[in-house]
Here is the input.
Amino acid sequence: MKSFIVAITGASGSVYGLRLVKELLKSGHRVYLCVSDTAFLVIKTETGVNWTAGTESATEKKIQKYFTSKKIRYFSEDNLFAPLSSGSFLTDGMFIVPCSMKSLSGIANGYANNLIERSADVMLKEGRKLILAPREMPLSAIHLENMLKLARLGVHIVPPMPAFYNKPKTLGDIVDFVVGKILDSAGISHKLFKRWG
Here is the structure.
């Protein structure tokens, strides 16, 4: 069993983050989840899922119930005392899906203003796997420069861009393809889509 940090930020595309968590848990991995305050609103707007519960532990119970798993822990983005903020806390990598341009900028510039940015900063300084799924369109030169800066540091930049050679029939098929590519970038096996050839 491996353990991964998954962060969901306030960009559109929260369904990718939810599907990623489901697949990691289904594969038997432990997940440490951090959701930005804005992401809670986006998740509710895009999926109807309402995790807002007040305290960190009450929110964690709602999240565990949603995923029907105790292998998921939740930490508030304001909780800089969470174990995820320390390099001595070992995980097998971190996903930020979707990754807002604000979060991407904070990570690229070492701002570490909240738990998501601090956890990503830890991944960079410890040389651990960090995978970002930036969700914005069109991209400005600032966005591209921040992505290039992170890519040069070894960060996997995996924008949620669907393919159509697998002839998707539903929105779920498109989401599964994107999440499958995100898992591929971390070397995690899955059967979310039919491969080319």
In short: The helical segments are 14-26, 37-47, 56-67, 101-108, 115-126, 141-152, 171-185. The CA atoms of residues 24 and 133 lie 16 Å apart. The chain is about 40% helix and 15% strand. The mean pLDDT is 96.
